[in-house]
Each structure stands twice: as C-alpha cells, then as structure tokens.
Amino acid sequence: MSYQVLARKWRPRTFHELVGQAHVQRALVNALDQGRLHHAYLFTGTRGVGKTTLARILAKCLNCTAGGQGDAGITSTPCGQCDSCRAIDEGRFVDLIEVDAASRTKVEDTRELLDNVQYAPTQGRYKVYLIDEVHMLSTSSFNALLKTLEEPPPHVKFLLATTDPQKLPPTVLSRCLQFTLKHIPPERVVEHLTFVLGEEGVAFEEGALWLLGKAADGSMRDAMSLTDQAIAFGQGAIHHADVAAMLGTLDHRHVLALVEALADVDVARLLGEIAQLAEQGPDFAAVLDDVTAILHRLAVAQMVPDAVDNGHGDRDTVLALAARFTAEDVQLYYQIGIQGRGDMAHAPALRSALEMTLLRMLAFRPQGVPRPPATPLPLQSQRPSAETPAAPPSSAPPATSALSAEPTPPVEPVPPAEPTPPSEQAPSAEPPWATDEAPPMVEPLSSPHPSSGPEPASPEPVAESAPEPAPPVAAEAPAPDTAPPGRLDHAGWLEGFGALKLGGLTRNLAAHCQLKSDDGETLALRLDPSQAAMQAEVHDTRIAKALASNGIERRVTMSAEALDLTLETPQTRDARVGQERQAKALDTLNRDPHIQELKQAFGATFMDNGVMPAGHAD
Ligand SMILES: [Zn+2]
Questions:
Q1: Mean pLDDT, to the nearest integer, of 600-617?
Q2: Model pTM greater than 0.70?
Q3: Which of 143-157, 289-303, 368-382, 444-458 has the lowest mean pLDDT?
Q4: pLDDT for residue 410 is more than 60
Q5: In this structure, which residues have their CB less than 5 angstroms from ion ligand 1?
Q6: How far does residue 77's CA lie from ligand 1's centre (Å)?
Q7: Domain range holding 110?
Q8: Total of domains in the chain
Q9: Residues 444 and 513 in one domain
Q10: Ligand 1 geometric centre to CA of 367 (Å)
Q11: pLDDT band at residue 46, thresholds of 50, 70 and 90?
Q12: In angstroms, what is the span from residue 65 Cα to ligand 1's centroid?
C-alpha cells in the first residue's frame, strides 16, 4: 500500500476529531442533533484551519445513509462507511460543490453556479456549497448570491469561507451564521502531532514538534505537511536539528542567548553571540523579530505569568528571564527592536543593523551601561581627544580621584599635601599615578617615558593599601612610583589629563605640554615651541583652576621650550593610541574572510579614512 500523507490520512472525519475548533463543533453538533440547521454559514479564518474539512464533515452529516433515508438520517456522527460518506471522504461526491471564488469572480461564473442551486441533489439529501475566499466575488456576483441566500431551496446549505470578512457586503453577512475559525496554537499542534506520531510509530524529539508547531502558523494542515517532510528528511524519525535545518529556522537557543546577554548587560557576550550566529548565515531581520517576540513574552511574563505561552517549549526559561529585566527596560527594548527592524531597510548591512539595534537597547536603558572596571581612573575611556572640549560636568565627581593629589579614598578628600595614613580597606585610595589598573578600553602606554619629576623615588605609605602598586605604564617605565607623596609626575599628567575640565584653546595648549616639575607648590609645564604663539598667562590660571578642582592646588607656569623627546604629550599620546587602534581595526578587517572574498572577487579596497576603530574618540 502506498504511503498516504499524514494530512490526508489524519484529516478529521467527524466533528469529534476536529482539532482546536471546539466552539464551531459544538454549535454545529447541537444544530444537527436538534434538526435546526441554518442554511448559510460563514467561516472566517486563515488558510489551513479546517474550512474544507468542516464542509466535508457537514456534508457527511447531512447525507450519511447509515441512519436511514429521508431527513431522519441527518446525524452529527456520520458513519464514514456508507456510499455517501466514502464518496465525500474521497472527494467525489457530486453534491458537495467546492468553489474557489478567487478564480471565479465573474458574475457569469456565479450565475452558472447558482442556476444549479434550484435542482435537487443527485446523490444525497442535500447539496452543500463551499465557496472559499468568498470576499473575492464581484459586486454583481454578490447580488446574484444574495438572491439565493434570501430564498434558499430547502435542500441547499451554503458554507462561505473567507479570510477577510470586512470585504463582504453587510447584506450577505446578515444572512449567514458566522463563526471564526481559530488559529490553532502551537500547543494544540504539538499535542495533536504527538498523538498522530504515536499512532504512526514514528520516533520524535519534542523540541522538533515545537518548531513544526510554530512554523505551521496556526494551520493544522501545514503542520501535517511539514511533519511529512520532516519524517522524510529524518529518514523515518523526527530530529530537532533536522527540522531546524529543514525549516531554515534559527536555533531558538541562540535567540535566548542574545536576550540573556541583554539581561546581563554584557555587550561583549552580545556581540560574541551575534558573531556565532553569523557563521550560520542567518536572516538577521528574522533574528531581530525573534528577539522582539521574546521581549513581548517577557512583558507578558512580568505582568501575567500564567499567560505566557509555551510556544517554543521554553516557558520556564522565559519566566526566569522575565525576573531579570525591569518592566521599563522590556518596554524600551521592544520599542527599539521594532523601530530598528524598520530601519533595517536603510542599513548598509543587516548584521551591523542588528548589532546597532541591540546595542541601542543597552545604551538607552535608563541605568546606562555599567562601566566594567571600578578603578581609581574611571574616566579614561571617556577622555576626549586633545581638540575636544572637556568632559561634561556630570562626569566630574569620579574625575576627582583621577587627578587627586592626596592618597585618600575619593569619598573623603583631604586637603592636598597632607598625606593621610594608609587606609586598609581602600585600595582605591591609591593615587592615580601609582596604579596600573587602567580601564580595559585604554591601552597602556608603551613608549618609554621616564619620570620627568625631579623628585627621587620614595614609595608612599599609601601604596601598602594597594594590592599591586605597579606603575600605570608599561613595564619599561621605571618612573611612576618615583613621585613623592602628593606630587604629580609626567605619567600622572598624561593619565589624568582627560579628566581635567579644560576647554578650547587652553585644553589644546595643555595637550601639547609635558610636565617638567612639581614641587608641591608650582607645577612647571614644558610647552611644545610650535604652540608658543598661543601662550598666555590666562591659560596657566585656567589650568591651575582645573587642577584645583581635582584636588591639586598649584601655581602653574608654562614655558615654551624644546620637548623631552623621550616623553609623550597628551596630544601625541592620543594620536598614537588612535593610530594603533586604526591599524588594529584595519588588520582585523583584512583578516576577515568575507572581506578577503570581496577583495578577491571585486578587487575591493578600503577607502582612506573609511575605517574607524570603535571607541575612536578615546
Ligand atoms: Zn455514512
């Protein structure tokens, strides 16, 4: 015996086998049992939810001969064995007339059809007309139909079906008993598939059925067809991986991992997950859709946990995730997600569009993205380049510790030049120029730079409180801890420069300075002679003021003289760091296999200045 596809083999043959349409089933069974059938029914609902199946069942109920001839034979439980039942099941019953209105919209077609309505049924007791996509009929066709609906012959039942009931004239609507056929939810599909596959003796993984249930999109017929394909694909069994491959669906675990990374505000992991996803060449727009779909379920989970569907068999995971977001964040992320989806049309690359959208979620969350390191040099990653204005005032408080001259915890500043006893529990008391804990985004200085401070090295007592009183610069720099207590050395000048509240010309000038000496009262700066024309006393005052607001009270003298070529200035340091990042970015791009392909296939090259490293302003 040849293989019969599941959708046909398991097509419901009675109302009681109908899956997911209990409300329609009950209404029709009652009407049949009480002999009070309406003459026209309108079923609304998308494809594959069972309109044709319903029509066939109804036709059997009306025409089954097992209960005897005549109207007394009408039953809600057709036998399935008599000639009529079998003819209907096999689709060769002449009194079941199926019409696809989408292909027969002309009034002649409708007239021809309706002309035959008046004739008695040939084979059974009733003629059953199923007019699918009835909203496609032309106005004149509707008028012709309406006449029949107004005075239908007693031996005729109309089943009208449409996906779009709004397009039906009210006059037609008012003459039909209307039922909305429901989308069959994945839960019901999985349940039914579990039953059918059990009967068929086909092995399966439950996760695979959830994929099929989702892909079926409310249609049991589609679910069955897909299951047939999955069985063929898996050579007799249904495996999760096979079905995912067959459907081209994203492995749901990847999407969950993205949302997990959002929950942890872990940008590195987020980008890592996308990179992994990218290896599978996914539809990035679909990825974003899946993420926003989960965000929607998170919002539901937060407010009505019982209402969370088990659409991917992941209900528990979703409930657990929901507890890790605030309701506001979920709403915000969702909004950003769907807007980002719309913007994808304009994005140069879908992957970067996905990345930007997910990053935007984190960037815009009210709490902000936490800065990973909590070191005494908090503002490193925000430091503007020499030409840009100083950081906004809001960043001032942490800045205090960056250039703070006194070795006390930043919470309780003590007047400078009065070193306090070491604080045991406060490694953060470490002065900025005596630490090597720069935030990760800042690359340590690698150029040699011996201290320009005249003071001899004398380890500060406070250094004991720091776990590792190592220099802030690369190992070859011997100087940093040579600064005496409360004195600033050149390394400290470089490190702390970004935190100084300087603007405009003053900042530009200061960026071209090396620290010459600091004796605790006067800070001498050596200005690059090329900038000498700009020099003026007002800048000294401003620098002194900026230092003071960072806890360093000094008179500042700036003198144009030849720079110490072994030292950097804030300006040259920023330029070097920028170049290194640029080179690194180019190198990374050049090693990217996709780019190599582009280069080979099209002779692509990078445009000058077209490559910007991330965190460029740093
Ligand atoms: Zn029968």
A1: 62
A2: no
A3: 444-458
A4: no
A5: 64, 66, 78-79, 82, 85
A6: 9
A7: 6-180
A8: 4
A9: yes
A10: 68
A11: confident
A12: 5
Strand order in the sheet with 522-527: 513-518, 522-527, 555-560
Expressed in angstroms and rounded, the spacing between residue 86 Cα and the centre of ligand 1 is 7
Q: Could you tell me if residue 87 is inside a domain?
A: yes
Distance (angstroms) between ligand 1 centre and the Cα of 226 equals 31
Q: What pLDDT does residue 455 have?
A: 43
Residue 404 CA to ligand 1 centre (angstroms) = 94
CA 102 / ligand 1 centre spacing (Å): 31
Side chain identity at residue 24, one-letter code: V
Q: How far is the CA of 159 from the centre of ligand 1 (A)?
A: 20
Which tokens sit at 122? 């040939």
Distance 81 CA to ligand 1 centre (A): 5
Tokens of 91: 């689709």
CATH number at residue 87: 3.40.50.300
Report d(CA 332, CA 262) in Å as an integer: 12
**What is the 8-class DSSP label of residue 212?**
H
Q: Is 356 in the same domain as 392?
A: no
Distance 439 CA to ligand 1 centre (A): 80
The pair of three-digit structure tokens given for residue 349, joined into one six-digit string: 């690359």
Judgement on whether residues 35 and 122 belong to the same structural domain of the protein: yes
Contacts of 491 by beta carbon, 8 Å cutoff, 6+ apart: 433, 445, 449, 451, 471, 472, 473, 477, 479, 480
By the 8 A CB rule, do 375 and 436 touch?
Answer: no
Whether 461 and 345 share a structural domain: no
Whether 590 is in a domain gets the answer no
Please give the distance, rounded to the nearest whole angstrom, from the Cα atom of residue 57 to the centre of ligand 1. 10
CA of 66 to the centre of ligand 1 (A): 5
Burial class, 119, CB count within 10 angstroms (exposed 0-12 / middle 13-18 / buried 19+): exposed
369 domain-assigned: no
pLDDT tens digits, residue range 459-511? 444 434 444 444 444 444 444 445 566 788 888 888 888 888 887 778 888 88
Gap from CA of 328 to ligand 1 centroid (Å) = 59
Tell me the CA–centroid distance for residue 123 and ligand 1, in Å.
13
Ligand 1 mean position, distance from CA 184 (Å): 28
CA 68 / ligand 1 centre spacing (Å): 10
* 519: its two tokens: 């004796």
Residue 587 lies in a domain: no
Residue found under tokens 């309109």: 51
Say how many Å lie between the CA of residue 62 and the centre of ligand 1. 9
| Residue 391 scores a pLDDT above 80 | no
